[in-house]
């Protein structure tokens, strides 16, 4: 994933607990971002990860290769060689103890950008004057978006959420980030390869909310920031909680 953009573009992950096809005791936690319609970044290693029991056997099939995932405590991961964007449509299988856990189809290789920020990035296309003109454009199945759900900001929400990839077809783009859509549309027309946006945004947030807490230690008011985290009202002040947006929306997708 490339990290270069305007406003704030930084490298989300919702979890879905799935049992093996045989209904056994084994279960894996797989990020929703690994689902049909996903786009992987061209010419960069393809990383797949999740959580599970370290005693489990986890294998992933992708692009003609089958690899065994390695565990680091409860987290498993596997890495595949870079792919070139040459119009191919790929698939992926995630298996546990030889049983199919998830089949992922319609995988494209292209440009993947992560668009993050507050209201200027969170603003939906349907709230702009360009919306109707944009919706009249022909459907483009190779222009895609994965919007991170704000439900993850709720303390009681851990997943699964079932968040899915969307392509620029029908009326789906109305709820995409306007800035991210226009950027991706322009890039797609320029490069002529698949383009995807991963969008964790939230209006009314401060910079500190998107920072890793340990990066804020150099702030003169670091202790004050930590104190604020202990007394915040989660129903009103989420956007002002240091580190919260990073922990809930950003951290889970950084390896992607």
State the helical fraction: 10-25%
- Do you know the CATH topology? Immunoglobulin-like
Please tell me the total number of domains: 1
Average pLDDT, to the nearest integer? 85
Largest sheet, if any? 8 strands, mixed
CATH class wording: Mainly Beta
Order of helices and strands: EEEEEEEEEEHHEEHEHH
Q: SS-based structural class? A: alpha+beta
Helix count? 5
How much is the radius of gyration in Å? 19 Å
* Poorly predicted spans: 3-25
What is the overall shape? globular
At CATH's second level, what is the architecture? Answer: Sandwich
Task: Tag the structure with descriptive keywords.
256 residues; alpha+beta; Immunoglobulin-like; 13 strands
Structural description of this entry:
It contains five helices and 13 strands. It has 256 residues and is α+β, with helices and mostly antiparallel strands. The protein has one domain (15-203): Immunoglobulins (Immunoglobulin-like). Strands 3, 5, 6, 9, 10, 11, 12 and 13 form an eight-stranded mixed β-sheet that branches. Strand 9 and strand 10 (99-114) form a beta hairpin. The chain starts with 14 loop residues before the first strand and ends in a 6-residue tail after the last helix.
């Amino acid at each position: 994933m490339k990290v270069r953009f305007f406003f704030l573009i930084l490298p989300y992950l919702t979890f879905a607990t799935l049992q093996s096809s045989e209904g056994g005791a084994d279960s894996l936690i797989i990020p929703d971002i690994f689902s049909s319609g996903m786009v992987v970044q061209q010419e960069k290693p393809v990383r797949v990860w999740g959580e599970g029991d370290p005693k489990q056997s986890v294998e992933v099939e992708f692009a003609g290769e089958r690899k065994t995932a390695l565990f680091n405590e409860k987290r498993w991961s596997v890495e595949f060689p870079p792919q070139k964007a040459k119009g191919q449509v790929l698939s992926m299988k995630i298996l546990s103890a030889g049983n199919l856990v998830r089949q992922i189809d319609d995988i494209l290789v292209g440009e993947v950008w992560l668009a993050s920020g507050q209201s200027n990035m969170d603003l939906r296309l349907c709230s702009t004057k360009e919306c109707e003109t944009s919706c009249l454009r022909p459907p483009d199945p190779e222009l895609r978006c994965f919007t991170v759900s704000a439900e993850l900001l709720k303390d009681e929400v851990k997943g699964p959420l079932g968040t899915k990839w969307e392509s620029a077809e029908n009326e789906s783009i109305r709820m995409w980030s306007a800035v991210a859509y226009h950027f991706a549309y322009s890039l797609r027309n320029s490069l002529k390869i698949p383009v995807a946006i991963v969008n964790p945004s939230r209006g009314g947030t401060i910079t500190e909310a998107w920072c890793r807490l340990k990066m804020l230690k150099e702030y003169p008011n670091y202790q004050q920031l930590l104190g604020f985290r202990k007394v915040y009202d989660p129903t009103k002040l989420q956007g002002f909680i240091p580190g919260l947006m990073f922990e809930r929306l950003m951290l889970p997708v950084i390896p992607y």
